Amino acid sequence: MTPFLPRSCQRLASWTCCLAALLVSTAGFSATTEPAPKKRAPPKKPKTWETFEKCIYLENPSNDGDSFQVRHGKKTLHVRLYFVDAPESNLADPERVLEQSQHFGITQAATLQAGKKAAEVTRQVLSQPFTVHTRWTVAGGRSRQPRYYCIVTPSGRDLGELLVSQGLARTKGAVAPTPGGEPSKSVMARLQQLESEARRQRFGAWSTTNTP
């Protein structure tokens, strides 16, 4: 004998059966449906160089051999050189000073002295208008003003190469293909040769080195 159910219960049972059937059919549909293909992110556009000619060196207490402020027209730019690292001129970053002194094989006091010399050479070399190339890659640092990696060419010569050849910077830092298309590996190889020659000649920071 079929148990008696009130009409409201009968309707509820009917709805329950329909819902169960719908869930079963939906599960089967989901199991056979292929997942949507993932969208690929568009390829990043390569950074391009922007060139500023007739730039002017700006005096600033934070300037050193490889990091300084320049002006182009009404704009001010805080430059950080590609490829090279000049000695620090103060103890604001003692760990870096220690690392640099170990690289050059000199005392920390001699490192700071070389850093001051590098800053003075940069200031003198940039006493006349010069050219700055940048890809607007942000460089780190303690300055509140953002710094950007740049290649600086006074009178057509690369400032980084000049510092390394005089023993006032080492081959180290951010790299990039040059505005002329020279691969960064080629630039680094040339700088390493210049650094080896400066060490052999005992130029700049290498003058009191304890390394052979």
What does this structure look like?
With 212 residues, the protein is of the alpha+beta class. The protein has a single domain, classed as OB fold (Dihydrolipoamide Acetyltransferase, E2P), CATH 2.40.50.90. Helix content is 38%, strand content 20%. The protein is built from 5 helices and 7 strands, in the order αββββααββαβα. The protein has helices at residues 7-32, 94-104, 108-125, 159-165, 184-201, and strands at residues 50-58, 67-72, 75-81, 84-85, 130-139, 147-153, 170-171. The strands form 2 sheets. Strands 1-2-3-6-5 form a 5-stranded mixed β-barrel. It has a two-stranded antiparallel ribbon with strand order 4-7. The longest helix has 26 residues, at 7-32. It is globular, with a radius of gyration of 32 Å. The model is unreliable at 1-6 and 15-32 (pLDDT under 50).
Summarize, please.
38% of the residues lie in helices and 20% in strands.
Please name the defining characteristics of this protein:
single chain, OB fold (Dihydrolipoamide Acetyltransferase, E2P), 5-stranded mixed barrel, two-stranded antiparallel ribbon, globular
Biggest sheet, spatial arrangement of strands? 1-2-3-6-5
Q: What's the helix-strand series?
A: HEEEEHHEEHEH
Global morphology: globular
**Which radius of gyration do the C-alpha atoms yield?**
32 Å
The helix content, as a percent range, equals 25-40%
What is the CATH first-level class name? Mainly Beta
